[in-house]
Each structure stands twice: as C-alpha cells, then as structure tokens.
Amino acid sequence: MPAAAPNIAALIVAAGRGTRARGQAGDPPKQYRKIGGEAVIIHTLRRFIDHDDLGPVVAVIHPDDQAALAAAAGDIAGRFRTVGGGRTRQLSVLAGLEALAEAAPDIVLIHDGVRPFLSDDLITRAAATALETGAALAATPVTDTLKRADANGRISDTVGREGLWAAQTPQAFRFDLILAAHRAANAAGLVDFTDDAAVAEWHGVQVTIVEGERGNTKLTTKEDLDMADVRLMRAGAGRPAAEIRTGFGYDVHGFAPGTSVMLGGVEIAHDYALSGHSDADVALHALTDAVLGAIAAGDIGSHFPPSDPEWRGAPSERFLAHAADLVSDRGGTILNLDVTLICEAPKIGPHRAAMRTEIARICGISEDRISVKATTTEGLGFTGRREGIAAQAVATVALATDEDFSR
Length: 407
What we know:
Elements: E1 8-14, E2 34-35, E3 38-39, H1 40-49, E4 57-61, H2 66-73, E5 81-84, H3 89-100, E6 107-112, H4 120-133, E7 135-141, E8 146-149, E9 155-159, E10 165-174, H5 175-187, H6 196-202, E11 208-211, H7 222-234, E12 242-257, E13 260-263, E14 266-269, E15 272-274, H8 282-294, H9 300-303, H10 317-329, E16 333-342, H11 352-363, E17 370-375, H12 381-384, E18 388-400
Parallel strand pairs: 1-4, 1-6, 4-5, 7-11, 16-17
Antiparallel strand pairs: 2-3, 6-10, 7-10, 8-9, 12-15, 12-18, 13-14, 16-18
C-alpha cells in the first residue's frame, strides 16, 4: 500500500505595518496595495492555494485588516483561514503555528505576504528538502561586492562573498521542529529574530539551503510596487498582458487680475492670476487630458463640465486624481507623465521640484516618473505677449489586456 502523501501547510505572514511603500496619506499597507489590479497578498495567497501538493493555508494578518483582506479576497474567499499577528514578525509566526497545531501538518512553509512572484517549483523544492532534512531555506548566492562601512559612511572593509547567501522565503520546516523552536524562543524572551531559519538555528536545528529565485523579490518600497505592477501586466503566455498607451494633452488659460497662479498643484506668487472656471491650473489640466487620452476616456470637459457650478473654483488636483483612478480601475498604471509649461513668466525652475512632488502625490506614483519642463516662445504669440500660459503634456500608461497582438 503506497505511503500517504505528506500534509504540507503554508503560513503567509502579512501582519506588518511597513511605511516605505506608502504613497499618499491614507494608502493601505503594502500587502493590500494593488498590482496587476489585485492586492499583493492575494497574488501571494494564490501561489499556495493553487499548488497541488499543499493543504491548509493560513494568513497571519494585523487585527485591523480583517475587512481589508475580506474585501480583497475575491474568488479565493473561504479557501484560507486567518489569524491575528503579534507585535513582531516572530510573534506573528508563532501565532500562526499555534493556529495550525491542532491540524499538526508534517511540513509548514512560512512565506512573506509581499513576495508574490515565487514559482510552484520553488514551493515544491522547499517542501521536499524539509521533508528530507527537517529544515530548508530558499536563498540566492550573493553576487554583489560587499562593503563594510563605519558610522560616517566610510568604507572600512571589503567582505568576501564566497559562501554568502541572501535569504528569501519560503522557509520550510518539519512542523514539530519549528513549533518547538518558536515556543522555546518565546519562553526565553527572544522575540526579535528576523527570520524563521534564525529561530531554528538558535534551537539547534540544521537548516539546508534551497536555491531561490532572483524574481522572488520582496516588495518593500513604492518603486517595488510600481515595477511589480508592470511586471504582472507584461507577463503572459505567448502574448503581452500589458498594452502600453500614450495620451496627449494641451491647455491654455489667460491672465486675469490677481496675485498668484496655480501651476502643477503649486501656488506661485505672480502679478496676475489665471482665468478659469476651476483654479485654472493649466499644467494639471493638460496632464488630466493626457491621462484621459491614453485610456480613451474623453477629455476633461466631459468629466468636469465648465457649465457645472460644482467645479467653480475647484482644485484641479481633483481632476487629475480622477483620471489616475480611472487608470487604476482598469488594472493599469501610469508609467510616466511629462508636462511642458509655455510662458514668459513666472519662472518655473524654482518651483519644478515642488510641482513634481505634488503631481506624484496626486497620481500615487513616484517622482522619478514625473517630468516638468518650461520654455518660452521668444516673445512671439499670446504667451510671448504675456497674455497667458499654455501647457502641453504626454502620459504613458500600461493597461492590462487580454487582446492577442500577435495576429
């Protein structure tokens, strides 16, 4: 009679409150930010839920995130269970292990909730190695030259990289071994180990390295999330899953009596104001039209008619934020925004950095995706006569698509 297949469980650790990936105020924790139109943690959970060899899957989450996870779960709702995490990663893992104790799986795979790009093969290899040796750590060999520096940033030593590995997850263990190690560490008051292999090593468990994957990256910063979004949309079997689109925007506003102008979300002191139904931010209006054009969603006037009193004096950031939300709603991402202001005055250079910051904040993308330029018309035309300001903008957007472009 063939031996029974091992019971392999997965523990997805997602209780953190990291801030490096935050964009705008009020953004959710990084595990609930969307990439490819879906929350990061859902992409990660799918890798384990859909794996043929795995049994129970437990997500360890912050106690305040139950509603966020339920809202994001979609078609995998009910296919995993949740448990509240602790104040450190190690305590969160222990809470998850205790939740699995009654089921007593043979093997448990412990994985970061913000590593959504691991392969089925890595899961299989990590579990198989843990079955054979008791403990396995996914890791990649260090290839960069390593430097040790003093407190002032001066290099004090070059560290040999031979035999050095960069730890990843999943980390797989015989369940009884890792549960005992975590319980012992907690009883000893040691609750700040940075990974589970370290807990196992402290408890005397020998851990075996399993070759990891370069693509199995941990999404830590907002830039990581932006790149992951594009990566998911570009992935596909035989066809691109991302359609790259470009939109163009142009706007003009004349001067009127006043003491300042709004440009790129920044108020700039000036001899005049700009005339318009809203705050007449010509830069944000051009950018809004460029983003709307990239997704073929009409123009700014069709979304915010100047005849509607609701928009009288309205801040133009509402218009650009709406266009950015439409991109996000379609599972897309803004890859680049480029705006050129055409005027003799005011001088744009001193305010360029502040404009980039504001535009990035409004759109929820990083500043290195924003370009703000300025030029004059050498005294020619209405801008040359200092009668107003014009702006031209280009937006590049990636949209998820099922269309096959190979035909």
